[in-house]
Amino acid sequence: MSREGIRVARSRIERLKVLFSGGQGANRADARIHESLQAHAYQGIQAEFIVVSDDRDVVKNSEKLHAVGMSPVEFWMGFLAAS
Questions:
Q1: Model's pTM, two decimal places?
Q2: What pLDDT does residue 27 have?
Q3: Residue 11's pLDDT is what?
Q4: At what angle do helices 56-64 and 30-42 cross, to 10 degrees?
Q5: Residue pair 50/68 in contact by the 8 Å Cβ criterion
Q6: Engineered SS bond to 74: which of 29, 32, 43, 70, CB 3.0-4.6 Å?
Q7: CA–CA separation, 50 vs 62, rounded Å?
Q8: DSSP letters of 6-56?
């Protein structure tokens, strides 16, 4: 767990990063997601990012930074359709 109370889980696939907080207020992952997308844009990193959140503002802000934003339901429906 990081100092901000955000858990960062890394999978065996290096290209996957999962941020979630399980917390409230300033300890939520929302700000970290936004900061991460901004940093990649600033550094000129061209990559596809998918942000899954049930918070519409997080999805909208992610899309403004050229990420693909979707709800958990949309994510799982796409996942199940692909299997």
A1: 0.67
A2: 60
A3: 44
A4: 0
A5: yes
A6: 70
A7: 9
A8: -EEEE-SSTT-EEEE-S--GGGSSHHHHHHHHHHHHHTT-----EEE-S-H
Tell me which amino acid residue 82 is.
Answer: A
Contacts 24+ apart (CB under 8 A), 6-9: 6/32
Q: How far apart are CA 73 and CA 37, in angstroms?
A: 22
Q: Which residues lie closer than 8 Å to 75 by C-beta, 6 or more apart?
A: 50, 52
8 A C-beta contact, residue 22 and residue 39: no
Structure tokens at 45: 């990193």
What would the two tokens of residue 40 be? Answer: 């990649």
Distance separating alpha carbons of residues 28 and 82, to the nearest angstrom: 30
Q: Please report, in tens digits, the pLDDT of each residue of the chain (83 residues total).
A: 444 444 444 444 566 677 666 666 766 778 888 888 999 888 888 778 889 988 899 999 999 998 999 999 998 898 788 87
